[in-house]
Amino acid sequence: MPEHAPLPSSSAPPSPPVLTLREFGFTYRGSDDPALTGVDLMLHPGEAVAVLGPQGAGTSTLARAVARLLGEHGESTGSREATDDGIGMLGDDPEAQVTGLSRTVREEAALPGRLIGLPLQDCLARAAVSLETLGITALAERELSTLSGGERQLTALASLLTLHPRVLVLDQASQSLDHSARRRLARSLRQFRATGGAVLLTGHQHDELSVECDRVLFLDEKRLSAGGLMPSSVTPVQLAAHGIWDARHEVHTPLNTPVHLPNSARGPGHEVLLRVRDLSVHRASVQVLDGVELDLRAGEVTALLGANGSGKSTLLGSLAGLVPSGAGASILGPGGVELAAEPAHRRANHIAWVGQDPGDQLSASTVHAELMRAAPLGPGGRRLKRADRLQAKKQRELDVQRVMEMAGLTAHAEDHPYDLQPAQRKDCVIASALLMNPAVLLLDEPTLGRDAAGMARLSHLLRSFTSAGGAVLVATHDRRWAAEVGDHQLRLVADHLLPDT
Ligand SMILES: Nc1ncnc2c1ncn2[C@@H]1O[C@H](COP(=O)(O)OP(=O)(O)OP(=O)(O)O)[C@@H](O)[C@H]1O
């Protein structure tokens, strides 16, 4: 079958489409180039379609167009027809997924119903069903500010489901979810479709959710491929050709050989840059970590796996000094310096932390200004003599340019960090961290929202850092990437850190 041949007509659903885009295009205000052009797309009741494209191809614009969220942001061409305006969408920005209007998970899940005037009892009943469907009933009374990234994403999905939409648009819906949460979500989408609901998935990765769709379409150069492919027939080569990251762990594990840049420092016995002993952490009286032991060595990447809420962010935050740990913990930095009692800003001389939400760590109005702010002037800093200071400034500019280049941010130097895609915002924080010249880099879920090139760039950044003698601890749900980039893989299970098998 040619790559984009329509599927056999026997598999086409008989009912009329709930959504039709014809020759649809969209140009953002202030831009000369369209973000989408000539898009034809039909979605039928009970159908699920995945539209995959590389970062910047327009997948999020397409999702927003379908959900009618583009409004006054620009000009559209062609037509969009929907027979049912019960379209609900979950966007691709994990930081914008909860409203900030509710205190608890239950209130957040009930909120959309309240906003459209449903009686409170109905809202709560619907919320209870949504939480149950997504397997997060146990979180109902939890305050939103205490949720892990995946828990927050599931809460946002639960809110969406309480509106009983007829069409669900999910932009990178799997991104903060662990394997079992993705499977749970896939199961609830199956139930949703069985009752006539239609699903449009968009994103840059082929994973547990997109493999469940009826069709996969590729968006390249702002245009959508015609017809579609059965997800089971999509090959790694086709995905690579379209710039899509293939997150199907099973497909890659047997073939996987870790790709490492040459690194003379690697091998057992080289310097331990961070030695952790007896690290225990409680959050709101629940023990999240119990007696964790960990060695991070120069030249090595350690991948940290674990279910949603298992404590990965807690571990990284406690090493960075941002989450208090129990008495008796020892955290030895480079040269054996004890850091456990040091505040976060002192630990930052050795350890750089890139948290889950990049927005928390960005404050300048352009990418370039953000990186200049992060980069120290070198030993002596502001006290340098004028000539030395000029030289140090020149060097800093060169360092910033080099890191921007490596992180793929050069073209965005003058952009506001909040105008970047979520993955690029994270790149900006990673670039700032690298400019601090830390010995140890702690990264929390840096793979979210990346296409194949974005993943390769990230791997390269980490490998360059370890090749220069640094050590990396990186929390991720992407088992394929963890196997490829990690010298070691550890898994957090029931408060304990174990080798991943
Ligand atoms: N400030 C807080 N107060 C109370 N509990 C919290 C707080 N922050 C996190 N938790 C809880 O601690 C546990 C570990 O959370 P953490 O964010 O470390 O998990 P994670 O492994 O990073 O999860 P994810 O993969 O979803 O990001 C979870 O049950 C979480 O809900």
Task: Briefly characterize the structure.
This protein has 501 residues and is of the alpha/beta class. It is built from 14 helices and 20 strands.
CATH architecture of the largest domain: 3-Layer(aba) Sandwich
Number of domains: 3
Structural class: alpha/beta
Query: Which cofactor or ligand species appear?
Result: adenosine-5'-triphosphate
Rg, rounded, reads: 24 Å
CATH hierarchy, class of the largest domain: Alpha Beta
Key words describing this protein structure:
single chain, 501 residues, alpha/beta, Rossmann fold, 6-stranded mixed β-sheet, 14 helices, 30% helix, binds adenosine-5'-triphosphate, P-loop_NTPase, hydrolase, ABC_transporter-like_ATP-bd
Describe the structure.
The protein is globular. The chain contains 14 helices and 20 strands. The protein has 501 residues and is α/β, with parallel strands linked by helices. It has helices at 59-66, 105-115, 120-133, 149-161, 179-194, 236-241, 249-252, 312-319, 344-347, 367-374, 386-406, 422-435, 452-467, 479-485, and strands at residues 19-28, 36-43, 48-52, 74-82, 87-90, 167-171, 198-203, 205-206, 215-220, 223-224, 245-246, 272-283, 286-297, 301-306, 330-332, 351-354, 440-444, 471-475, 488-493, 496-499. Helix content is 30%, strand content 23%. It folds into three domains: 18-86 and 166-250, Rossmann fold, CATH 3.40.50; 98-164, no CATH class; 272-499, P-loop containing nucleotide triphosphate hydrolases (Rossmann fold, 3-Layer(aba) Sandwich), CATH 3.40.50. The strands form five sheets. It has a six-stranded mixed β-sheet, with helices on both faces. It has a six-stranded mixed β-sheet with strand order 16-17-18-14-19-20, with helices on both faces. The chain binds adenosine-5'-triphosphate. Residues 146-151, 176, 283-284, 288, 306, 308-314 line the site of adenosine-5'-triphosphate. Residues 21-246, 274-501 form the ABC transporter domain. It comes from Nesterenkonia halotolerans. Keywords: ATP-binding, Hydrolase, Nucleotide-binding, Transport.
